[in-house]
Design goal:
alpha/beta; globular; Nucleotidyltransferase, domain 5; 5-stranded mixed sheet; 2 domains; 35% helix; 27% strand
C-alpha cells in the first residue's frame, strides 16, 4: 500500500433499497465499518419501489456530480455479491462489472450479510438475516473481526425462520443481535421463540448500506482481494446440507 487511502465507488442492490456511495479508506480495525481509517464522502439510498435498473446509473451520476468526482478518479469499484434479490444482484453486478471493464479498474465484492453485520457491535453474536421469500431467510452468524472484516461463524444458509430459532434455542445461551430486512417480517416470531435471546438492531441498520460496503471493500483493496471480472457471479444461496452443520458451528464458536 502506498499510503494513499483508496477512493471507492460502491453499489448495493441486493434488497429493495438501491444504495450507492463514494468512500475513502477502509473499515476500522475495531470491526464496525467506519472509524478513523475511512470516511464516507457521499451516499444515496432509494427505496421507492422503482426497479434498480431504472435508477442505478442516474444515482451514480448524481453522486459523482455532487462530489465533483470523475469516475476515472476512483481506485476501484465495489458491489454487493449476495445473497439477496436475484434480479437486484444481477443488475448491480452487471453494472459495476461493465464500468470496471470500461475503466480498467479493479472490482471488489462483499457479502450482503457481512455489510449488515459490520454495522453492529463485533463483540456480540450477530445474526444477519434477509428475507429470501418462500417462507425462508438467508442467514449468517458473525462475531469479532478478521483483518477488519466481520468473522463468519459457519456457512450462510437459506433456512425457515422457525428452524433458525430452534437452532439458536438449542445451541446458543446468549443474546443474539438480529439485523436485516427479515427482522421486519419475522421479528415477532423470533421474539416469541427466543425471548431475551432476541435483540433487534436499530431500524436504520436493517437495509444494506453502500457506505459500509465501500469501507469493507477498502479493506479488501489493501489486501489485494479483487474479483476476477471474467468469472465473478452473484452468490445465490439455497437450502442445502449447510443447514445440517449450522448447529455444530454455533456450538463450537459461541462458547
Amino acid at each position: 500500500m502506498n499510503g494513499v487511502l483508496p477512493l471507492i465507488l460502491s453499489v448495493e442492490t441486493a434488497s429493495s433499497c438501491c444504495s450507492v456511495a463514494l468512500t475513502r479508506g477502509f473499515a476500522g480495525s475495531g470491526g464496525m465499518a467506519g472509524g478513523e481509517d475511512g470516511q464516507t464522502l457521499a451516499s444515496l439510498s432509494l427505496n421507492s419501489g422503482v426497479t434498480h435498473s431504472r435508477r442505478l446509473l442516474s444515482a451514480i451520476d448524481w453522486l459523482l456530480a455532487e462530489t465533483e468526482t470523475v469516475l476515472s478518479q476512483c481506485d476501484a469499484l465495489a458491489v454487493s455479491i449476495g445473497p439477496g434479490s436475484f434480479t437486484g444482484l444481477r443488475i448491480g453486478l452487471s453494472t459495476v462489472k461493465g464500468l470496471a471493464m470500461a475503466l480498467q479498474k479493479p472490482m471488489l465484492g462483499v457479502s450482503t450479510l457481512v455489510v449488515l453485520a459490520s454495522r453492529c457491535p463485533p463483540s456480540q453474536l450477530i445474526c444477519a438475516a434477509l428475507d429470501a421469500r418462500k417462507k425462508e431467510v438467508y442467514a449468517g452468524f458473525y462475531r469479532g473481526v478478521v483483518q477488519g472484516i466481520p468473522r463468519k461463524i459457519g456457512e450462510i444458509v437459506a433456512i425457515a425462520p422457525q428452524q433458525l430459532a430452534e437452532e439458536i434455542v438449542t445451541n446458543v445461551a446468549e443474546p443474539v443481535i438480529f439485523v436485516g430486512d427479515a427482522v421486519r417480517v419475522y421479528g415477532q416470531l423470533w421474539q416469541e421463540r427466543l425471548g431475551d435471546r432476541f435483540v433487534r438492531a436499530p431500524l436504520p441498520l436493517h437495509s444494506p448500506c453502500a457506505a459500509s460496503l465501500g469501507l469493507l471493500a477498502g479493506q479488501l483493496y489493501i489486501q489485494n482481494q479483487f474479483l476476477d471480472l471474467a468469472s465473478c457471479a452473484p452468490v445465490y444461496v439455497r437450502a442445502s446440507d449447510a443447514e445440517l452443520h449450522l448447529g455444530r458451528a454455533l456450538r463450537e464458536n459461541t462458547e
